[in-house]
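Recap for those who missed Tuesday's class. We walked through two folding examples back to back. For each one, the amino acid string is listed first and its predicted structure tokens come directly after. Nothing is annotated here on purpose, so try labeling regions yourself before you check the end of the notes.
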Amino acid sequence: MADYIRIRDLEVYANHGVFEEENRLGQKFLFSFELEVDMKRAGITDDLSDSVHYGEICRKVYDFTRAHTYHLLEKLAESVSRMLLMEFPEIRSLKTEIKKPWAPVGLPLNTVSVEITRNRHLVYLSIGSNIGDKRAYLDQAVTELDEHPMIFVKKVSDYFVTKPYGGVEQDDFLNGCVELETVLEPEELLHALHEIEGHAGRTREIHWGPRTLDLDILFYDDRIMDTENLTIPHKEIPLRDFVLTPLAEIAPDFVHPVLKKTIIQLRDKCRRKSEVW
């Protein structure tokens, strides 16, 4: 059973719109939110710190809307929603509606509005390195993930030394897993991971070859997708001890959305018995 805080028609005068005069002169916008928040503890303690301060939310929206300029209501709604989800981790999901009462359409109307629903996504990554200062590369990757404005790092596994995978002769790997929350969509997250790999000097010259840093998306909520650039869940999870061992440390009961088995079960039945320590 869900709990909600609702904010109706917060008025902000700001500069958004397709036409130059809208951006220059500004106009009125009305914001409404439906915030899914667990209010049980606040209902018992009567302590504001156990809930979400809707006054602070209104001030954040007001300041953000006036500090930026976008052409489309869609962009404004997406940006405000992401900002709130990252600023207030207590918000599980939110519905955002933005009304534009003075929309310049040249015809009589009351208002134009857009409405979207957004939430943070639970993601598991594998991280690995087998060149140079491996631990430093992994630590730097975790730091860059945590410093990304659209990512929360929640858990990091221990690092495990593992034998190379894929038949290419090379040094042992140092591998781990990361649990994070993000408002980025899978392709956006993949782009962010490639940027972090690039900062570590990662190249892709040899398939399964040596690398300074390797970041792979294992799971993204319980989403199942297969595109030219990205497959989720990662197809080789059931075959890789070097993934399942650290992942079992931070998410033992997570259920694979295709195989319907927990990470512990997959680890115990893993067909690849590589050395992990």
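Example two. Treat it independently of the first, because the proteins are unrelated.
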Amino acid sequence: MGDYDIQDNFGETDHVPDLFCETETAHDTGGGVFDDITPDDLIVAFFPCIYFCEDSQSYFMLSNNNRKLSDTEKIERMFARSGKRTEYFNLLVKPVGVCIRNRLRIVIANPWTMPHFLSAAFLKPPSVIDKDRTIRGDFFRKPTAYWFFNCEPTVGFLPQQDKEVLTACGKNGESRAGLCSEERSMISPDYALNWICDFVLGKDQHLEPSLFD
């Protein structure tokens, strides 16, 4: 299968289709990239969180909106953002629906800081919440929720704490890594492997390529 993404910033993505369009097609008529996926494959989808996360939720409070605007202008902007949130929510639910229909395994990943829109408005509660990703070797703590559909997370945990810990404010609090920055969205190779070991394979982490032979 390889990896699919809507962008290819590092020149390493195997396939770069319009995934939103592919999702709409698969949901409405079938076909597209989902036809290339089998029940033996596992989809891990890192869906954009911009309309679901804590910052987005606070956007709907007059006190947290653009202070240069009148309350009437703020409310109009809220209507527009609410419409975009609905659009993205539909785009999140549709691939899950396609996978349920086609009996495909899928894991949805999204940041998990409160208040979070998906905490009370999604198909089911998260299957796993990784509250501190640095324990598994990632660069940032980044609490993350994972929803497993047509599969269940396994358990095989061995903490790894030899990575330098970063937070949303950057290394040692010296500089800020923006909440939507590419830097903060990166996943360390250690975390990727450890996550697969813990939640997909149910094995202790062994940072060796032979693990997947």
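Answers for example two:
The radius of gyration is 19 Å.
Helices lie at 19-28, 54-58, 71-102, 182-185, 189-201.
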